Amino acid sequence: MSNESLENLSHEARTFAPSKEFAAAANAKADIYEIAQRDRLGFWEEQARALTWDKPWSKVLEWNSPYAKWFIGGKLNASVNCLDRHVAAGIGDRVAFHFEGEPGDTRTITYAQLLSEVKKSANALIELGIKAEDRVAIYMPMIPEAAIAILACARIGAMHSVVFGGFSAEALLSRIQDADATLVITADGGFRKGGAFALKPAVDEALKGKHNVKNVLVVKRTGQETAWNSELDIWWHDIVDRQSAEHVAESFDSEHPLFILYTSGTTAKPKGIFHTTGGYLTQAAFTHKAVFDLKAESDVYWCTADIGWITGHSYVVYGPLINGATQVMYEGTPDTPHKGRIFELVEKYGVTILYTAPTLIRTWMKWGDEFPKAHNLKSLRLLGSVGEPINPEAWMWYRDVIGGNRCPIVDTWWQTETGAIMISPLPGVTATKPGSAMRPLPGISAKVVDDKAQEVGNGHGGFLILDEPWPSMLRGIWGEDERYKSTYWSRFENKYFAGDGAKLDTDGAIWLLGRVDDVMNVSGHRISTTEVESALVSHEAVAEAAVVGAADAMTGQGIVAFVILRGGIPNVGGDELIQQLRNHVSKEIGPIAKPRQIMVVAELPKTRSGKIMRRLLKDVAENRAVGDSTTLADPNVMKLIKEGLSTGKDED
Ligand code: WTA
C-alpha cells in the first residue's frame, strides 16, 4: 500500500469501539495496560502464575542483551500444563479436539483421552531411546497425532522440530541435518483436495542423504501402500498402542529447550528459531486468553493454521490446551468438497472464535457471499487474523459477512521469532480500525523508528522494533549465534529488528506495511527470495536468477523470477522449460515456493558492485514504470529486459 493511500485511509478509517456487552464480560479489563505499564515484570510474573509450576522461579528476568532468560530457577512440564492439570481439576471429559478429516471422518478427543495418548506416545519415544534435549522431526498432516507427537516430545523434554507437510524431501533433509534429529515422526499420508497424498516417500527420499536418524515412526492415516525399510520404520500403532498409559512427567527448567521451528531468512539457509519453556508458555497462554477472550467452558475455538507453522504451535497446541479450550481441528482444504466447507464446520461445531489468515478471507470474498450465507454463523463471537497485513476491504468483509457485524476483529501481529502475539487489539478494551493491528499488548514494548533508531511521530512510517525483552522471545538461531546477533540485533543497537515496516497513524495506531528485507510473504508464508534463487540456479538450464515478491491481490505477494539461461540452452518452446523450472522449485522447496511467473531475460540489472537491483525488477513484475536506475552498471539493461521479456505466467 502506498504511503499516500495509507494516509487517506488512516484519516477516513472507521473506528469500532468495543460494545458495552462485550466489554462487560471480557477477560481483559480496562486497566490492564496501565497495570502492565506500572510494573512490566510484575505483570509477566502474574501471567506466569496461571501456569502450574513444580518449583517457583527465583528471578523473573535476566537480560544480557541479546540473551534473555525468564522465570529463572522455575521448573515445570509443558505437557502437564496442557493436559494433566486439567484432568486433575476434574475436566478430563471436556473435549480438547473435534477432529474433522477431509473425507468427513471425525474423532472427538477429550482431555483425559489426549493425556492418555500423550503418555503412551511418551513411553514409546523413551523405548526408542529418545532423551531430553534430543531433536525429533515431525512431518505430519493436520491430524490429532501431530499434536500428540508434539506433546509427547515436550513431556520427556525432547525438542520437536515440526516441518510443514507441504515442504519437499530436500527441505526436510536440510532441517533434519541442521537440527541433527534422531527420530522422524510422519504418516503414510493425508487427505487434501479430495484425495490421498503421500508423505512417507518424501521422508524416504530425504533419508537417502546424510543424517543420524535411527527410526521413523509412521502414523497410518490413509492406508495407502507404503514402502517400508524394516531397519528404520515402525508403525505408530505397533509401538504406541501397547505402551502403558502411565507416565510420570519430569519437571524441566524454565529455560529448558522446547522446540526449533525453521523459518525463511534472507539467505538460502532457513533459520532454526529456538524457543524454551517457561516464558514461551506464559505468553502463549496469556495472549490466547486475553486476545481471543477465551471462555474455556463455553467457547469452541478454531485456528485454521497448520501445525507446521508457529501459529499452529502457539494457537493450536500450547496456548489453547494450557487454557483448557475446546477446539476444532480440520485436516483438509477449504474448498473440499465445496467452497463452504469451513462455514459448514463452523455451524456443525458451533464455533465461537475463528482465527485465520487474510489470504483465506480474500479467497472467500472472491468465491462469493453465497457460501458463508448458506450457513448459520451466529455462534461466532470473535474473529482473528494473522500472517500478513489485512487490507481494510477484507477486514470489513470479514466483519460484515462472517461476523454479522457483531464480532470484534483482532488483527494479530507476531512472528515465529516472537513466539506469541505482540501487537493486537484486546477485545472489549481496544477500539479497532479496519486494517490496523492497533497497539502493543500490555507488557510488550514496540516502536516505529527511523533509520537512526529515533522514534517517528504519529502520522509517520519507519521500521518496527521491539525494545524490551518479552517472555516468548526466541532464544537464538539453532547453532548460529553470530547469525542471531547479526539478523535481529545489529541494525539497531540492542533493539530487536523485526524486518517489518510500519506506520503510526495520526492517532498513534500501528499499521503494518510488510517486510522490508528480502523475505516474501506469499499467502502468509515466509519465503526468502534467495532460497528460491538458489533453487532456480540448481537447475542445469539456469545461469543466474533474481526473484522478487510482486503485489498479488489474492496471495499478498506472488513470486516472480527473472532467469538468465546457460549458454547453449535454447529458449525455444520456452513454456515447457518454464514449467520445468517452476516444478523444479516446487521439488526443491515445496509447492508454496513455486514461482507465479518466470521471465527469461538476457541480463539482470546490477549495480557496479554487482548487487542485483531487485527494486527495478519489482517495477517490471508489478507492471510499473521502472524507477530510478541511475546506479545501474549498464543503463541499457532495463530497456533490454522490458523489450525482450519472455514470460511464463501460470495461474495454478
Ligand atoms: C507478517 C506468523 C501484518 C510479518 C505469525 C511478520 C503480519 C511475518 C501479521 C511473520 C499481521 C504476521 N499484520 N503482517 N497481523 N502477522 N505478519 O514467522 O511480515 O510465519 O514479520 O509468523 O508475517 O511470519 P511468521
UniProtKB/TrEMBL annotation:
It holds the Pfam family AMP-binding_C. Gene3D superfamilies: 3.30.300.30, N-terminal domain of ligase-like. Its EC number is 6.2.1.1. GO terms for biological process: acetyl-CoA biosynthetic process from acetate. Residues 87-478 form the AMP-dependent synthetase/ligase domain. GO terms for cellular component: cytosol. GO terms for molecular function: acetate-CoA ligase activity; AMP binding; ATP binding. Residues 531-611 form the AMP-binding enzyme C-terminal domain. Keywords: ATP-binding, Ligase, Nucleotide-binding. NCBIfam families: Ac_CoA_lig_AcsA (TIGR02188), PRK00174.1 (NF001208). Belongs to the ATP-dependent AMP-binding enzyme family. This is acetate--CoA ligase. It comes from freshwater metagenome. The lineage of its organism: unclassified sequences, metagenomes, ecological metagenomes.
